[in-house]
């Protein structure tokens, strides 16, 4: 499971999001006023964990990584919407961590896609 590079990418993304949710969503700052951020962060962690554990089903792994990428994009864009009125250094750090997790999820998705292509090419040759 951890022998594949996409598993390492997903594990790093999970660790980054756990750190983000522990340090920034559990404090009494502005993020707790909006339950959207902890919920979406938790959903991203769950999807990345499912993608990490479903290493035998590459198509499902790709779908879970894609959904996690979409959720991370929403987490990056959401604080910029004027409804939330968030102007805090904490949210900037949170958004940077989401962007790094997004990068690792995307690299994992590309590695999964590359593996799927290799398997299809090997099946085609047989």
How many individual domains? 1
The span between the termini is 26 Å
How many strand elements? 0
Average of pLDDT: 84
Share of β-strand residues:
under 5%
Write down the Rg.
Answer: 16 Å
Summarize the structure.
By secondary structure, the protein is mainly α. It has one domain.
Kindly describe this structure:
It is a single chain. The chain has one domain. The chain is built from 4 helices and no strands.
Spell out the key features of this protein:
elongated; 126 residues; mainly alpha; single chain
Fold blueprint:
Layout: H1 5-24, H2 36-53, H3 58-77, H4 89-125
Helix pairs in contact: 1-2, 1-4, 2-3, 3-4
């Amino acid at each position: 499971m951890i022998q594949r590079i996409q598993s390492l990418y997903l594990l790093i993304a999970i660790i980054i999001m756990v750190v983000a949710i522990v340090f920034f969503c559990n404090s009494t700052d502005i993020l707790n006023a909006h339950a959207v951020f902890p919920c979406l962060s938790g959903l991203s962690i769950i999807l990345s964990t499912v993608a990490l554990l479903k290493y035998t089903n590459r198509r499902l792994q790709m779908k879970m990584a894609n959904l996690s990428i979409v959720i991370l994009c929403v987490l990056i864009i959401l604080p910029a919407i004027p409804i939330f009125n968030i102007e805090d250094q904490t949210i900037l750090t949170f958004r940077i961590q989401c962007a790094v997790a997004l990068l690792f999820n995307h690299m994992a998705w590309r590695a999964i896609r590359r593996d799927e292509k290799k398997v299809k090419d090997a099946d085609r040759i047989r």
